[in-house]
Amino acid sequence: MAQAPHSPLTADQASETRRQAYNAAFEELGLNWHWDTVTFACLPAPGRDGVRAYLESEQPHLLRAYDADFLVEAIENAQARFHATMAAHRAIAPPHLPPYASRPAGSPARAGA
Fold this sequence. Notes:
By secondary structure, this protein is an all-alpha fold. The protein has a domain of 75 residues: DNA polymerase, domain 1 (Orthogonal Bundle), CATH 1.10.150. The chain contains four helices and no strands. α1 crosses α4 and α3 packs across α4. It starts with 10 loop residues before the first helix and ends in a 21-residue tail after the last helix.
């Protein structure tokens, strides 16, 4: 039986996938941050501008040790990798299951997933 193609993500699903990808990026980079849905929705801008604004307002101590452009670039690059992986997993997940439901039993769940 052929699988039906996945329907496009809704705006809410796409936003949630980006939020989860950011949280995975923070974890990979050793940043003790977690953006819940409210924090993510309250960012003043999407992408690099939102990350920079968050750094400047919520994590200014990091800017004494690191260049803002360096941190933003590192976060955005990691987030893009995780987002691509999440999109690929969604593309192969059976349509009746959520994107990560097809993860093998016993594999660890990522924070924010």
